[in-house]
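ligand=adenosine-5'-diphosphate
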Amino acid sequence: MTRAGPEAGAVPAPRFTHTATNDLGHETKMSAALETDGFIASSVRTDAPPAIVLDKVNKWFGALHVLRDVDLQVALGERVVVCGPSGSGKSTMIRCINRLETHQEGRILVDGIELSDDLRALDAIRREVGMVFQSFNLFPHLTVLENCTLAPIWVRKMPKKHAEELAMEYLTRVKIPEQAKKYPGQLSGGQQQRVAIARALCMKPKIMLFDEPTSALDPEMIKEVLDTMVMLAAEGMTMICVTHEMGFARQVADRVVFMDRGEIVESGTPEAVFNDPKTERLQLFLSQILRGH
Amino acid sequence: MSDITLNVASANPEATPRSAPITVVGPVAWMRENLFSGWLSTAVTLVLAYVVIRSVVGFVDWAFINAIWWVPVDARGVAQTQACRALEGSGACWAVVTEKHRFMLFGTYPYEQHWRPAIVCLLFIGLYIVSALKRFWNWRLIPIWAVTLTAIGVLMWGGVFGLPYVPQERWGGLPITLILATFGLAFAFPLSILVALGRRSNLPAIKVLCVVYVELIRGVPLISLLFMASVMFPLFLPEGMNIDKLLRAQIAIILFAGAYLAEVVRAGLQSLDKGQYEAADAMGLSYWQKTGFIILPQALRMVIPPLVNTFIGFFKDTSLVLIIGIFDLLTAGKTAIVEPAWQGFGVEVYVFVGLIYLVFCFAMSKYSQGLEAELNRHRRR
Ligand SMILES: Nc1ncnc2c1ncn2[C@@H]1O[C@H](COP(=O)(O)OP(=O)(O)O)[C@@H](O)[C@H]1O
Ligand SMILES: [Mg+2]
């Protein structure tokens, strides 16, 4: 990885104008925010109930204690970046939020609904939470368009034609409408990840989870994916994003959470966390990250 | 890359890319390269060529040049096979096929009603062709199968529409083979998918049931399963209740093929990346939606070659029903030469029967190759 670094805060924000996207259900936070030196104004809604609550969450893999008393509240419209060394439990934490992993102690509430063995609650939550994976996980036997319309048609029960229009709209927004009829294997990594983002957005989620979305990409493709995520952030999407792209974190994050060995060690604004680390563990981590770039 | 090459390239942007070195082509060059590249290779080529040519010439002599296609039949309907016997094996006596083909194809089915099993065979072939066309891969296939199979049942049994009733004991030949194979695979394949999914289930009861089924059935030869179906199974049934022998053999074949196919399908399921399951889960697809749209389409495509291998194996294994006295194609062929006049002409009969099996199996094999290429289009770049 070559970019990111403190000076990389100037990721050029995409200049997009809202045309026919108003009916897509997202708050329209506009380019005014994007103009401000690449930083995006906060869209945190403190008046609404929190979108995600993790309350003393514990999880073990066998004897391995991977999440230790994790407490985290994410407000509606808040953008949280999670960082930390490999194996610290970042993926496990966000995968608990849509129950790809089950936690063993504590409570997790998403959009006011508690995660439990109740399958109906789980379905409701998964409809509202989109996820983007490090390895894209597109469906290789379906075209890009079919990837995007499958869940809206079968989970949201959207008419096929409507779902296709919506998919084309999101594919246009991630700037690859011309690839709609191709299969994922025919696209570059950056394009595939943008399709994965569009696919998640087609479900009109309230919350988006990103698990190292750029870690599997060649350096020249990282920017196109980050730009897409910046665009999403500018629209006020509630996001939790595991990433080590510090430029991205500085630009969009309301809060940065540092995890180590299953615990949330520090949390605060990007400036506070990156410029003024309190713990030795974070200092060590930051020095390693910076050396790596 | 040195600066010099860079400069040359930039100085001459129109430069044509260098073409690949020319390779020698043409049949003569190919032969020199592959067949006569040294004295040993030349010797092997010559010896093999001699063996192949002798065999082909011998076969053509036997099968065509010296062959006898017809023999006279005397007033009592007994074939006069002296001419065939006089050949003493130097030529084929295809007269046995000419004379007995209807018995081989339709067994002991009443002679004047043979048009019925003949139509049944054509219906089966039509059904295979329609099912093989991608255009029909939708809900329409279900009524097509239902109607065709009903028509097949009506034709075989009769007893309605003025068709005389023909009990199942008199059915025989190719229709029996096609019935056993078609119903066998049509039921075993879905069964195998359920069992393969069950083996990966989170529910312990289902998982154990599926494992026990596969291991039990795979541990027993098909022949013994057929024996059990024909001899032991009726002992367990209450007095007076009798399940048709063909049906019992059919069930044994379904259970057996199901266990084998289940393992093939399971291999396909295992080859899928965990991320595919997670992506489907994260989108909120239900278990059956995920399985039907994401998992099975990919898993089955992956295992088309071993699946078809198993299909072909079972198509031929239906011939094992001869040991419990069901009159399939092979049994009918064997029975055709029991008649004294035709004794000793087994080779011709088995070549004929073998050719019929070959046509079906080769068609399956060719079709699967096409299907594989077609369905894996998305892997091409
Ligand atoms: N399915 C699993 N089974 C057992 N251990 C796991 C599993 N997934 C992750 N782990 C372990 O849990 C720890 C946290 O993993 P993870 O959440 O993936 O970390 P991160 O995403 O921060 O790199 C690691 O030690 C990892 O080896
Ligand atoms: Mg991870």
